[in-house]
Amino acid sequence: MIKVASKFNFSYPSYATFVRDVYGTATESWFDLETKYKTPTGWWNLMLKYGGVTQQDIYYTLMLTVFWTLLRIIITDFIYKPIVNNAGLDAQSTRKAPESVWKLLFYSCTWAYSIYILFFTEHNFFYDAPSSFYGWKPQSPVPTKIYIAYLVQFSFYAHSVYGTLFMDVWRKDSKVMLAHHFVTLLLIGFSYAFRYTNVGILILFLHDITDILLEGTKLAVYYKTKGGKWHSVCDFLSTVGFILFGVAWYVFRLYWFPLKAMYAAGHVSLAVSQDLVFYHFFNALLWILLAMNIYWFTFIVVMAYKVVTKQVSEVDDTRELDSKNLTKSVVQNGNKRD
């Protein structure tokens, strides 16, 4: 049985300590936590007892999901596309650029709002991740600031499922991206219903920054050959953006995410509270998200390896092109430069 501590003396762990402590807590608590609910009927009864979703929440979510879709269509057709069409980009970049602009603006706004919550309010979960579980109780009220962030993010990812299927350019990893959207929806919805929202806002903050850098870098790549000419500034920006993107991906998603958020949810949570419901399910979702982060990091490593070994001469998106077409694209752009 895990001991409850009145005050948890926390220091961020190494990877080895993280795996050991989270695995130990999960396995040790398996036979003690929610024993009587380990059947489908028991899970359903637990959801009915502790799940905190109102009709108003559902209404707001549906309305915002439609709003994001309509807003993207209107802004893309009347603002993004005319600007991109006048930029003289190639056909593929003309198709992809409006998508990147839309995502860049959205994630910039949501990340800025997360910064406000975590660094300019009383919700100091970035510096003190364990405090996200202090005084935790099921069905407790969600602070308005965090509620707004959750409503915006959940409705956007609901829109993103439609967007990936019918609005975005299809890529090699689009199926994985769809799986990511569903896992994210499940995480956001579940963490709201069962009040894991404190650690949830930290997780959203740790993930949005890389989307900003990704979309900004892709725009720099698309604009390198604007007007049929080679633009060295955009080439430089794409290289710098790629480096920042790779570093941020590791620091935010592969270092701080497991060692701050996952450690707090997987180990600290049961040390400071014995009222947790669906502890194992919630943490299983976090591990799935971590696995996806590792999967996408391999694309970054592959691209960096190709640049360092001079298999390619510039940064491109390895998710969209196979190796043969990637090399062909680089040669063509190199010719344009000459």
UniProtKB/TrEMBL annotation:
* Pathway connected to this protein: Lipid metabolism; sphingolipid metabolism; Sphingolipid metabolism
Keywords per UniProt: Membrane, Transmembrane, Transmembrane helix
Q: Does the keyword DNA damage apply?
A: no
Q: Where in the cell is it found?
A: Membrane
Q: Which residues cross the membrane?
A: 58-80, 101-126, 146-165, 233-252, 284-305
Reaction(s) this enzyme catalyzes, per UniProt: sphinganine + octadecanoyl-CoA = N-(octadecanoyl)-sphinganine + CoA + H(+)
**Residue span, TLC domain:** 95-309
Tell me which InterPro entries the record gives.
Lag1/Lac1-like, TLC-dom
Q: How does it sit in the membrane?
A: Multi-pass membrane protein
| Protein name, entry field | TLC domain-containing protein
Q: From which source organism is this entry?
A: Clavelina lepadiformis
